[in-house]
Design goal:
The protein has 353 residues and is of the alpha+beta class. The chain is built from 9 helices and 9 strands.
């Protein structure tokens, strides 16, 4: 074959170059070192005609947008659930005891009724009665072994139950069970108790409400049999090897005017009581009794007038004295300690009830 063999002017035939290429791949000695442009063109043609082998397979690139689509779908579902069940979603994020409960302002607009006295309140999710007062694990502390600490904790819890949940005490009767647990040899406390429970006009210092929850039955009565609670006990070694127990409990009482159940309010009471279970070898005491170290109170909807020894819910806003609008508190916020017992006629405004 004569004439031009291609655009590069080579006179070598296609068949010869194919042979050279095959020999080159097989390692033949006569293979050309630097093939011409035509050789490279034939080589590309031959490679394009070969079937693809398993070693030359190139997997397709993964598509990276799938995760974005899935994430978008999950966000859309979450928004739909939140729109349909807002209050249930809020319940999932109910804070533990260290923090305060979170609710929306819409939930607070739900007014309590006789059939639903805790509606619109975080207390709706709280435990009933004594079940809401948590007990820590007992360990040997001070002069007590683990079993004795367990008994001290149980008696401390019983004191809080007898003082804040006993139906007879709530009706204004004498708190006999709770009084029996207080060390009779603690003279200053015994004087306070006698004055607080007999005085016709108690003051902030001898107010029985610091320890006991009481309502006048002729003015106020509880709605139903349930009082909601949240709180617990802690303990440590106190003075002279005593076991010092601190109870911090919030009580929520749904109440209505006696003889008229049209209005339902919630009186919210938080108490912190510190009790010392003393070593009888160090302190004069009686078996099964404790000494009161301190007791403080914070209350909402319990009255803004001078102390009377009873909670006086502001039914129909007839509360003698309006709350202080400059001081606003959240009675369900347990993240902060009780600052101090309020003085006479000192009453803050609650942000919710």
């Amino acid at each position: 074959m004569s004439g031009a063999g291609g655009q590069d002017g080579s006179s070598v035939s296609d068949e010869e170059w194919e042979r050279f290429l095959r020999e080159s791949e097989a390692g033949g000695a006569g293979a050309p070192v630097e093939p011409s442009a035509r050789a490279r063109e034939v080589e590309r043609r031959l490679r394009s005609e070969r079937p693809e082998g398993w070693r030359t397979y190139s997997p397709p690139r993964p598509r990276r947008r799938t995760g974005r689509y899935v994430t978008g779908l999950l966000v859309a579902v979450a928004l739909l659930v939140a729109a349909l069940f807002p209050r249930q979603i809020l319940g999932w994020f109910d804070g533990d005891d260290a923090g305060h409960d979170r609710t929306t302002s819409a939930a607070d607009t739900d007014l309590p009724t006789r059939t639903a006295p805790f509606r619109g309140s975080p207390a709706a999710r709280w435990a009933d009665g004594a079940a809401g007062i948590r007990m820590p694990t007992a360990k040997a502390t001070g002069w007590m072994d683990a079993a004795e600490v367990e008994r001290a904790l149980q008696r401390s819890r019983d004191f809080m139950v007898d003082a804040g949940l006993d139906p007879r005490v709530l009706r204004g009767e004498r708190p006999k069970k709770a009084l029996a647990v207080v060390n009779p040899h603690q003279k200053d406390v015994q004087k306070y108790l006698r004055t607080a429970l007999t005085a016709k006009a108690p003051t902030s210092k001898n107010n029985p409400l610091l320890l006991f929850s009481r309502f006048r039955p002729e003015e106020t009565r509880l709605v139903g049999d349930v009082v909601k609670t949240r709180g617990g006990l802690t303990y440590r070694e106190g003075k002279r090897g005593a076991v010092e127990v601190t109870a911090d409990v919030t009580f929520v009482y749904p109440v209505t005017p006696a003889g008229d159940d049209a209005e339902v309010l919630r009186t919210i009471v938080r108490r912190e009581v510190v009790m010392s279970w003393d070593d009888p070898a160090e302190v004069i005491t009686e078996p099964g009794t404790m000494s009161l170290v301190s007791y403080t109170l914070d209350m909402t909807n319990g009255g803004c007038s001078a102390p009377t020894g009873y909670f006086e819910p502001p039914f129909d806003k007839a509360d003698g004295r309006a709350a202080d609008e400059s001081r606003r508190i959240d009675p369900y916020d347990r993240s902060k300690p009780i600052e101090s017992t309020p003085a006479d006629n000192d009453c803050a405004t609650a942000t919710r009830s």
